[in-house]
From TrEMBL:
Short name of any one Pfam family annotated for the protein: Mur_ligase
Chain residues that bind meso-2,6-diaminopimelate: 385, 409-412, 464, 468
Protein's name according to its UniProt entry: UDP-N-acetylmuramoyl-L-alanyl-D-glutamate--2,6-diaminopimelate ligase
Species this protein is from: Paenibacillus tundrae
Cofactor: Mg(2+)
Length: 495
């Protein structure tokens, strides 16, 4: 594609240099540049991409997108905001792939991965070639790709969406994180449906306050578009959890048609008669398209919310409620979400991805509901992330568990001992006696000791890492899987 064609997408951009420069591809990382690439200089959080432009040119970049002109011998497209430019140019370069698929996005503090899995299952059972993008993986057309985060950068996203289109994908369901919204990673992506799960504390290191965090999520609904467009395929839908205090805000900022779900009488999709066992969760659901009873193989009241969100998104697609029910009832669960580790032992071991105060409270409440013995909780908090959630999670663990093992969960570049101490603050505030909690920096040792002390009918909950297969200490990532370590510990248990 010619540089002038790309430039034409940005009315205020100034093109310095040869307009007919042929750009073979777009790139934001100098280390990945191939001859013929257009290199986009992003001012990052740690380094400034403009500093790497020279390296990019040496590697064969034929033109640059910049926020300030550089003294380099290649054409440059001067823009106000290169992140925004990247999103716009990537959408254009890859021929607006999101407009060729039915895009369903899910945002919220907790439940995004779970909800996207449920929607993917319903859509594909109904015969739609469906792609999925989120925390655990990206998958479509029978292929899976690992993910380094939840929502890809705009350039990677548009490239992947284009590949989905090329391989015949009709529907794409993806997680949209608040970081992604704040950084414009989904700018240029046209969604048909935006789903909101819930808003509780997380990421205050990045968003500073709950208001800012809510505003970041609000961008998704504000940018969604017209819910009442003449052409049916252009109509936009906002699926909102009516039981969440932030619901009114999201409803107020969107021009899309709103469909609510919740336990209250006024929700468009309403669940009632909920019964939870250690094997699953049953509920009755009333919707604008009929009523039915559903038995999930997934445990926890919060999964009723995730299921309702998926039901609403699927009803928008015109999928009959009975088909939705059939799909939901066959979902075995999501990798690392309330996942039982079963080596035939006399006590339960559950691995879960709860890494926020609300997530931990939800999963502990659920566990407590069916635990016949004690609840033993092993958890930690990520380093270089929201510090203020640590004592809150300590309090919650103390409140709902009989024994707490405080340990490491990706300490990253922070001192692991200090992270544990931040968590301990919450246990101290909750006046937990010293014999009811143990602080062990080494996660493997913590899991081994928790399982060693388990008696028949106890439940050991190992929270925070779920599907993760690594532990990040400093900047080194080493193999670590809670499920494998738990199995090891069960097999080696002395009693
Ligand atoms: C805070 C944040 O979101 N940071 C993201 C951001 O990094 P950054 O701004 O620090 O980038 P940088 O390292 O300063 O680099 C700036 C530019 O210089 C370029 N560069 C850099 C070095 C070099 O040699 N050559 C070069 O060209 C880089 O390619 C980049 O274009 O851009 C990077 C490249 O796309 C991302 O990998 C990185 O995510 C980091 C790793 C991250 O941890 N992000 C988390 C917080 C995140 O986004 N999480 C959410 C999930 C949250 C949830 O689940 O709720 C997510 O959606 O993943
Ligand atoms: N609807 C919900 N409400 C509250 N907690 C939930 C909900 N769904 C799941 N959880 C809890 O949160 C954890 C994470 O769930 P899930 O991975 O689906 O969320 P996510 O929003 O994708 O998280 P992330 O932001 O890390 O990608 C689960 O392991 C469970 O403990
Ligand atoms: N998406 C979340 C994942 C947290 C998982 C936990 N294991 C950690 O590393 O803190 C985040 O980036 O905050
Ligand atoms: Mg997720």
């Amino acid at each position: 594609m010619l540089l002038k064609q790309l430039a034409s997408k940005l009315i205020t951009a100034r093109l310095n240099g040869e307009p007919n420069t042929e750009c073979l591809n777009l790139q934001t990382d100098s280390r990945q540049v191939q001859p013929g690439d257009l290199f986009i200089c992003l001012p990052g959080h740690t380094v400034d991409g403009h500093e790497y432009a020279e390296k990019a040119v040496q590697a064969g970049a034929v033109a640059l997108v910049v926020e300030r002109l550089l003294d380099l011998p290649v054409p440059q497209l001067l823009v106000r905001d290169s992140r925004v430019a990247m999103a716009v140019l990537a959408d254009f370069f890859f021929d607006s792939p999101s407009q060729k698929m039915n895009m369903i996005g899910v945002t919220g503090t907790n439940g995004k991965t779970t909800t996207t899995y449920l929607i993917e299952k319903i859509m594909s059972d109904y015969g739609q070639n469906t792609g999925l993008i989120g925390t655990i993986q990206m998958r479509y057309d029978g292929r899976t790709y690992p993910m380094s985060g939840t929502t890809p950068e705009a350039l990677d996203l548009q490239r992947s969406l284009n590949d989905m289109v090329q391989s015949g994908t009709q529907c794409c369901v993806m997680e949209v994180s608040s970081h992604a919204l704040e950084q414009g990673r989904v700018k240029g992506t046209e969604f048909r449906t935006a789903v909101f799960t819930n808003l509780t504390q997380d990421h205050l290191d990045y968003h500073h306050s709950m208001e800012e965090y809510r505003a970041a999520k609000g961008l998704f609904f504000a940018r969604l578009g017209n819910g009442y467009a003449e052409e049916a395929s252009k109509r936009k839908f906002a699926v909102i959890n009516a039981d969440d205090p932030a619901a009114a805000y999201f409803i107020s900022v969107t021009a899309a048609e709103v469909i609510t779900y919740g336990m209250g009488d006024n929700a468009d999709v309403r669940a009632s008669q909920i019964s939870i066992t250690s094997q699953g969760t049953a509920f009755h659901v009333d919707t604008f398209a009929g009523s039915t009873d559903i038995s999930l193989r997934m445990v926890g009241k919060f999964n009723v919310y995730n299921a309702m969100a998926a039901i609403a998104a699927a009803l928008i697609e015109g999928i009959p409620l009975e088909e939705i029910k059939r799909s939901l009832e066959t979902v075995p669960g999501v990798d690392g979400r309330v996942e039982a580790v079963d080596e035939g032992q006399s006590f339960a071991v559950i691995v879960d991805y709860a890494h926020t105060p609300d997530g931990l409270e939800n999963v502990l409440r659920t566990v407590k509901e069916f635990a016949e013995g004690r609840v033993i909780c092993v958890f930690g908090c990520g380093g270089d992330r929201d510090r203020t959630k640590r004592p809150l999670m300590g309090k919650i663990a103390a409140k709902y568990s009989d024994i707490v093992f405080v340990t490491s969960d990706n300490p990253r570049t922070e001192d692991p001992d200090l992270i544990l101490k931040d968590i301990e603050q919450g246990l101290i505030e909750e006046s937990v006696p010293a014999d009811r909690y143990v602080m062990i920096v080494d996660r493997r040792q913590a899991i081994h000791e928790a399982i060693e002390m388990a008696s028949p009918a106890d439940v050991v909950l190992i929270a925070g890492k779920g599907h993760e297969t690594y532990q990040i200490i400093g900047t080194t990532k080493t193999d670590f899987d809670d499920r494998i370590v738990a199995k090891e510990a069960i097999r080696g248990k002395s009693n």
